[in-house]
Design goal:
The protein is mainly alpha-helical and 265 residues long. The protein is 87% helix and 0% strand. It has 10 helices and no strands. The radius of gyration is 21 Å and the shape is elongated.
Length: 265
């Protein structure tokens, strides 16, 4: 009985995943046709960006502080004081900032997308939109996709700065590393291409989060219980998508990569 229920759940999840892939293709077609609901897009950008900014800043700051505490003592013991800031900057830029920001947005925004659109589905509001000759993809999905794709790179960049500042403060207070040494290390290790790759990652993560949240909302059924199940499944699926995509993007972008400062050590 349990195996049958597990298989049924996996079958439903697979069909919804396929529906999400098709939805992504439909969104691309609509974007190429220039079908953008500007007012909805601006509203969603405000939800994804400014309303998530404080959480992203606090998270990135403490991650930078903790990372510095974890590595600074060992690096100082090996006489590598000049590398602490650079290693932190690389870790934040290449992995921590885009991934953690995507996790925050998944928890805050993807769940909201799935719950809101799912509620509209079970209360037949989406059917009403179609009767009024309004395409739900144009009105609901495209604005959310654009908002996540545009705002997540900005949040990632802000998180990167917050993480570096947090690490610099801890390095100065706890390990007496001067700000100038820390910032010189960041400048030596961090390249423009690393920052661009981080922005590209964040944009792709944002697209995934928006598509998954919207698709799971559109395929919701079963009343209030179904909305709760769709919200949970959307968050889990979006997180898995971000982590798996991050692996392949890291493999493509950073395989064999290394700054000149690292090569000269």
């Amino acid at each position: 009985m349990k195996s049958l229920l597990a298989w049924t759940g996996f079958n439903i999840w697979s069909r919804r995943l396929i529906a999400a892939i098709f939805l992504g293709g439909q969104v691309v077609v609509h974007l190429l046709r220039g079908k953008i609901h500007r007012r909805n897009t601006i509203e969603q950008m405000a939800i994804v960006g400014p309303e998530s900014l404080l959480v992203a800043l606090i998270t990135a700051s403490f991650v930078g502080m903790v990372f510095t505490i974890q590595v600074a003592r060992e690096f100082i013991a090996f006489g590598l004081v000049q590398t602490v800031g650079g290693v932190l900057a690389l870790a934040l830029t290449r992995e921590l900032a885009p991934v953690l920001t995507a996790v925050i947005i998944t928890g805050r925004v993807c769940s909201a997308f799935a719950a809101e659109i799912g509620t509209m589905r079970v209360t037949e509001q989406i059917d009403a939109l179609q009767m009024l000759d309004t395409d739900p993809i144009d009105y609901l999905v495209v604005p959310r996709l654009l908002a996540c794709t545009l705002m997540l790179p900005i949040l990632t960049l802000v998180s990167l700065v917050a993480g570096v500042v947090g690490g610099m403060i801890v390095a100065s207070i706890l390990y007496d590393i001067p700000y100038s040494v820390f910032l010189d290390s960041v400048h030596s290790f961090l390249g423009v291409w690393d920052i661009w790759n981080s922005m590209i990652k964040a944009a792709i993560f944002g697209s995934l989060i928006a598509i998954v949240g919207s698709s799971w909302g559109l395929t919701t059924s079963g009343g209030a219980k179904g909305v709760g199940q769709s919200t949970t499944a959307a968050v889990v699926t979006a997180l898995l998508s971000v982590f798996m995509t991050n692996f392949f993007l890291s493999w493509v972008m950073f395989q064999g990569a290394g700054g000149t400062a690292l090569q000269n050590l």
